Amino acid sequence: MQNRRKNERLIGAMGKHFPRTHAVAAGAASFALALVLFISPPEVEAKRTALPVTLSHAEVSTAESTRAPETETAETTSVMEGLRVVQETVRNGDTLSDLFQRAGVSSSEMYQLLSSGKEAKQLAKLVPGEELTFQIDGEGSLQTLELHRDRLSKVEFSRDNSDEYKYALHTREAERYTAFRQAEINSSLFVDGTKAGLSNNLIMEMADIFGSDIDFALDIRKGDKFSVVFDEEFIDGEKIGNGAIQAVSFTNQGKTFSAVRYIDRNGDVNYYTPDGKSMRKAFIRTPVDIGRISSHFNPRRLHPIFKTRRPHNGTDYAAPRGTPVYSAGDGRVVKAGYTKANGNYVFIQHGERYITRYLHLHKRHVKRGQRVKQRQVIGTVGATGYATGPHLHYEFLVDGRHRNPATIVRKLPKAKAVASSEMDRFLAQTQPLLAQLQRFEQPALAQNNEEKDSVN
Q1: What is residue 276's three-state secondary structure?
Q2: What residue ranges carry the coiled-coil annotation (predicted)?
Q3: Which of these ranges, 29-43, 326-340, 379-393, 425-439, has the smallest mean pLDDT?
Q4: Within a domain: residue 262?
Q5: Which of 21, 65, 272, 353 is a good FRET partner for 298, with 20 to 30 A between their CA atoms?
Q6: What is the value of pTM for the model shown?
Q7: Which residues pair with 82 in a beta bridge?
Q8: Domain end (from 225, 251, 280)
Q9: Alpha helices, H only, 81-199
Q10: CATH of the domain at 115
Q11: What burial letters (b/e) apply to 293-307, b meaning 16+ CB within 10 Å?
């Protein structure tokens, strides 16, 4: 196609300077040449895609100001360097051997690369969707292999003069821009959050931040509202994802909670109230993010299967099968197994006084004796054992006695606040974020009031 466009430009140029008869004759000759080039067999198989060599961010910024147009650069590279460039996308079930075979590179070349150093071992752990770019010389020898993990990083293995492969990691920094979203709850947190432009991950992050103060399965009411400031990430003008929440407020049943992100001197990231108190309690309010309470803690409940008065020593959360179940706090798995009544279950010991229990799981993701962190996935919602449908039965024991999981967490202490010696640093880092949240909220609040007045 490149040769064909060049011939067309040549014909146009000749039409301006040659007599008509000469131009027609030259045009006919050029057309015949283009036809021969068009029907000649290509060097690369149709399934392979020839691409220009991918550059790192630093190389791109340096080369953009000096290089010729892209089509000419690609042609120069293939002619001057004599390299064939093949790009392969990892498919489900692919092995590294499959990718090398499709690229036309021998297995001996692959083994030489894999034995070049410990960095090459990561090539054995490819994920579908990742891309490999091969640069191959005329003798079929692999000169360079690039692994594109994502838009921000590229791993490169290149053959040097001693016939050994050298490893290099090229990274790019995404451009970050501040974004603001605000919504009022009319249907549900997920529905209204999505309408406001929040991704599912950001909604879950917000629920996690306020998980010790708000029960998102029980406490949410119509008219609740939230405001959130977060980062959006772009590469070459294209949005590639969202960064972390920087500051957020949530008004639940008339009470407003605010949180701000803080990175301490050790590099640890947590969320705190504006005055430095931790948003994280020893236990989260609910072990599932999505679900509704289908049965409350009730010592005199009528059992739905046996129809007798039996204590219901926990809270049931109805949720779709496969919904992640989190550990309510840091601890150690003391039991994990299966019984006819409980189905798949996990029991976790938290310190000396507290135990949490998770019953009727579809699958267990932890084993007895394993240490777990707060909000670590320990299993998924199921309907195993004596269960009428998919749900999680969740129990909370204090000193061996069952307590209401929906209320006990509010009475437990929070994690440590920001140390007094670090308070000045905390305020310097977080006050601008809170001020930014307030600046965004004021125009949005004024606009909402104007809309209400116009309706009235």
Answers
A1: coil
A2: none
A3: 29-43
A4: yes
A5: 353
A6: 0.55
A7: none
A8: 280
A9: 96-103, 107-114, 189-195
A10: 3.10.450.350
A11: bbbebeeebeeeeee
